[in-house]
Amino acid sequence: MSDTAMPQQAYDLAGPKDYFALLKPRVMSLVIFTAFVGMALAPGALNPVLAAVSLLAIAVGAGASGALNMWWDADIDAVMARTVSRPIPSGRVPRSEAAAFGGFLSLLSVFLLALASNYLAAGLLAFTIFFYVVIYSMWLKRSTPQNIVIGGAAGALPPVVGWAAMSGTAPLEAWVLFAIIFLWTPPHFWALALYKRGDYERAGVPMMPVVKGEASTRKQIFAYALILAASGVAPFFIDMAGLFYLSVSAVLGACFVWLSWKVLRADEGEQGPAKKLFGFSILYLFGLFAALLVERLASFYV
Predict the structure, then answer these.
(1) In which band, very low, low, confident or very high, does the pLDDT at 177 lie, cut at 50, 70 and 90?
(2) CA-wise closest residue to 250 among 278, 236, 235, 229
(3) In Å, what is the CA distance from 220 to each residue of 43, 146, 199, 228, 289?
(4) Angstrom distance (rounded) from CA 145 to CA 65
(5) Distance CA 237, CA 152 (A)
(6) Rg of the chain on CA atoms, in Å
(7) What is the pLDDT of residue 7?
(8) Which of 67, 139, 249, 300 has the fewest CB atoms within 10 Å, measured from its CB?
(9) Cβ 37 vs Cβ 159: under 8 Å
(10) Predicted pLDDT at 92
(11) CB 242 within 8 A of CB 294
C-alpha cells in the first residue's frame, strides 16, 4: 500500500490520538508492567528517578516497535477485520510518516536508556526493537507458522531490560521471567488465531491454524499450557518468590490448563473456548507478575 493510494484529505484528519494509536497502547501497557516488575525484583533499593526515566525509555521503545510494525504490515492490516481501522490502512496517517515516527522513537528510547541507566539495558532494548521489527515482522510473520513461537522473544525481553536497567546485570532470575512470557505467547496468540482464522487467511499470514489446521493448533495450545503452568511456578523453586506467589501461580496455571483442555475438546469451528482462553491468558500473565510485585513490595514492610 502506498501513501498515494489514500486520499490526501484523509491525512488532514490525523491528530495526536492517531499517532498514539500507532504505538499499540494496549500492548505497550503490558510491556511497561512486566518491565516494571523486572525493575522491582532487581536487587537493591529502587531509585524512583532512575526507574521512571528507564520505564519511559522502555515504553517509548515498545511504542516505536508498534509503529514500525504497523508501517511494515499496512498491506495486510488493510484486509484484516480487526486491524483495518488502524491509522495507516484507514488513511489517517501516511506510511512514510509512521516509519519516520517509529524510527525516531526507536533511536530516542535507546539513547535515553543508555544515558539514564547503562549500556547493557540500552543494548537489550535495541535488540528487542530490532527483533520485533526485523526478525518477527519482516521475516518470520509471513514465512512460517512458527512466527509467534520464535518472535515471542521480543515480547518476553522487557522484564530483562527492566532488571538490567536497575542493576546492570541480567541474571537467571530475569531470564526466568523471560521464559514465562516466551512460553505464554504461543497459546495466547494461537487462541486468537483460532477465532480470527479467516482474517489471517485473507492476509496470507501463515498462522498455525491456517497452515496446520485447527486440530493441530488445539493440541499445541494444550501442550504449551502444560509447560507454561510448570514454568509459572518456577520462581518459587529458585527462591525468587514465596508461598503467596506459589499459590497464585498454581491456581492460575490450573485454570489456564483447564481452559486449554476445553479448547482441545472443542468441536471444529467452535470459537467460544478459544475466546475464553485468549481473554484469560492476559489475566494469567498479569496475575503472575502482579503476585511477584506484591511479594516484593511486602518484603519492604516485613
Answers:
(1) very high
(2) 229
(3) 37, 11, 21, 12, 24
(4) 21
(5) 24
(6) 20
(7) 41
(8) 300
(9) yes
(10) 92
(11) no
pLDDT, residue 122, reads 98
Choose among 133, 146, 72, 86: nearest CA to 107: 133
Sign of CA dihedral 119, 61, 39, 153: negative
- Segment 52-94, tens digit of pLDDT: 999 999 999 999 999 999 999 999 999 999 899 999 999 999 9
**What CA–CA distance (Å, rounded) separates 143 from 137?**
10
Given a contact cutoff of 8 angstroms between Cβ atoms, the answer to whether 192 and 278 are in contact is yes
Phi and psi at 131, nearest 5°, equal: -65, -45
Answer yes or no: are the C-beta atoms of 244 and 238 closer than 8 Å. Answer: no
Contact between residue 147 and residue 206 where contact means Cβ atoms under 8 Å apart? yes
The predicted structure's pLDDT at residue 302: 59
Confidence (pLDDT) at 268: 83
Per-residue pLDDT, 299: 81
Interval 128-139: pLDDT, tens: 999 999 999 999
Phi/psi for 235 (5° steps) reads: -55, -30
Q: Which residues of 161-192 are buried (b: 16+ CB within 10 A; e: fewer)?
A: bbbbbbbeebeebbbbbbbbbbbbbbbbbbbb
| Residue 31 burial (10 A CB sphere; 0-12, 13-18, 19+) | buried
What span, in angstroms and rounded, lies between the C-alpha atoms of 12 and 259?
Answer: 46
Determine the Cα–Cα distance for residues 34 and 26; give it in Å rounded to an integer: 13
What does the pLDDT read at residue 162? 97
- Is residue 247's pLDDT more than 60? yes
Residue given cell 500500500 in the structure block: 1
